[in-house]
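User: Round two. Same drill as before: sequence, then structure, for each protein.

Assistant: Same drill it is. First protein:
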Amino acid sequence: MNEEAAPSATLDVHGMLCPLPVLRAEKNLKLLKIGETLLVLTTDPPCG
């Protein structure tokens, strides 16, 4: 069985350019507990 668990949180940074998506992701990751995951949605190719 190879199911992916749903992310614990989602961060939508569509339209933002680096380094903003990375900085926002870092800030949000610090709020998560060990074992939780963050899904980052971005349109900036260097970040994706």
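Second protein:
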Amino acid sequence: MSTITAGLIPPNAPQRVPAPPQLPDDALSLLLNARVGWRMLDDGGLRKTPHEGDITLPWFAGSARDFGEPSGSFGGLCTPLQVAAAGNSLYLLDATTQLRHFDPCCCRFVTIPCTGGHGGGGRQLRNPGGIATHGGLLYVCDSGRDGLTINGSDPRRQALRERLRRENHRVSVFLLNGYALRGHLRPAAEKYPHWKPRAVACDARGGVWVTDIANQRVHHFSANGHWRGTRGPLFNVPLYIAVDRCGVIYVVDLDPVHNKPRLQTMHADGALLPPPASVEAAAERFDALPFAVLADGTLDLRTLCSENPCAASGYFDDDGEPLSAAPPAPSQIYEVDGHFLSGPLDSGILDCQWHRIALQGLMPAGCSILAETFCANEAYSAAQIDGFAQWQALTVALPRNSDKTPWSWDGLIRSPPGRYLWLRMSLRGTGKTTPTLRAAEIEFPRITSLRYLPAVFASEPVSADFTARFLALYDTTTRSIERTVDNLASWFDPMSTPAKAVGGATVDFLTWLASWVGLSLDRGWSEARRRDYLRRASQLYDLHGTPRGLHEMLLLLLGWRDAATRYSHRPARRRCVETPRNCRPVPACIPYQPPPLLLEHFRLRRWLQLGTGRLGEQAVLWGRRIVNRSQLDTNARTNRTLLLTTPDAASDPVLVHANRITVFVPSRYRDQAQRRSLEQLLRSECPAYVQYDIEYVEPRMRIGVQSMIGLDAVIGRLPQGLPLGTTPLGTASILSAAAPAIPPAQRIGRNARLGTPPPLN
């Protein structure tokens, strides 16, 4: 008998042959969407929606949006000329030079008082143009009047013309908070004594870009209002301007030859760039608006209005007046049909029987999608596919629900087996509506319950195909249940469980999961905070009802749980060279200690030790000084002492401080919403027999009142300078001491050195 040493293979040992690949237990899948790519061989002229990348029918000839629309919205990519948006806040400048703000509760524009109006004052306008917002500021263009309508050579008329020529040719800057006038933007007077600002836009850094139709230029101002010069070439009539996320400047200029609007793009330094081919191509560079802008400048503000708006339609004209009904739609918006070709999709399995296709998207009434497939064991080119491909059509996908709800459909692939698959999708619409394809999932290979049946059911190819397709109806439902079971662990993870109620449920799964560990999540918190709070709090379940557990939960509620990691002192690195002997010792690394936040009252007992203690503040006799008991004919006073019969006075030193705590939190938790979260936490974490008090700590210390360092006394960082007229005197404002009348002439480390004689004063 031969002996084989562990870890060594004898030379005559047979080589192991790898097992042939077997079919997987579950079907695999390939995903086609905008994120991973559609793998198109031929797009067929179909359109991809901006931002989402979904596939729809192309625009009908003449109905596509254009950069040079009269509203100045660049085809709906940005707000119109006279409209500016700051988040969900909307501002509009109407034809009467009145500045208006959109009220979502009443779904209408409200006039801002004391701002705008016709005139030459600092807050008034003569000939307003475009507006823009950025960084809490509102920029309003005013091209003013030239005075050309005033005729005559009278000196008074000439003076009036000169005054009108000087007035209001500016960009007014208002604060959005209070609408105070901050100033006006103008270029250098020696270079451009007369200018007419038409449109304004802001970039991501706060820079302001203004078109000047008088000098045919684009001016650049810094965020502080300083003029930085002009950028770009000499334009003809620069009408509108916009800036995308990448800082590219878009200018709509009037073509001098054809007298039509044209688009020119340039870098921030003025270098020209090739303009995008269409609005769809440039949409990815702009942030999506919270509302829609139609081609004629009509504002669709239905998404900003409340549930019960006063306006009937939610549509507004360019002056901010509500429309009684929605504008009529054109007779045809999209092409009627179109198709695209994707492939080849590689399964990696020879003679693979592709299983099914699942589609997701939107399917309005009257639209349909037809999917066709072709399979082969070789990867052919697009030209070869067009020559000999035999397409097998699936059932036509038709609408099943309303136009705006998500739509899904699936169908079995009837093509013969093959390693590669080509997919041809044909979209058909009504001209006014179009189907939207968001994703297509192709499953392979076909794994059904046929493998569990006797072999006689799969002996004949035609019967086997029918039986497999018939069982696939049940296997699809079974596989969806299995997939839910496979992903069941994600429902019990606070970071992945659904945070929104599904169907008619009254509570979401995240809140229900928190109830498992006795937590109640505040609905006012963000989703990320609720998930993180539940994840961390579940780790403290073993400490529930203990002082340490309550302390940790308070740190988690206040957001101080990670402070030990963020503010820990890192030890200094040791050098390779030995330090000199006269160096001071390196201080020990003291880790960050969070504040105690809790004060258990039994720690306030001041016991008197026999033989060593003395009566005083550190040791007092109990009775009247502890619970303010009344002693008849001695110290009983109305509204000053309490009449207590139980328990007896001898138990006061033990019972008065027992089962009672005080919680110290920052003063910001006086807010009603945050205070409710704090009280809810204390009710759930404190035992029923424990009484708690809440103390709101402000950054100050008062001797005898608020002087326990670490609990109710906090050293705050107060501001050094207080601007006059803006800061009220109070606990957060301290006037600095007056400077000495004659400051010391010499200070070590500033203007004096040892060993040099000081100068004589």
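The chain has a mean pLDDT of 80.

User: Perfect.
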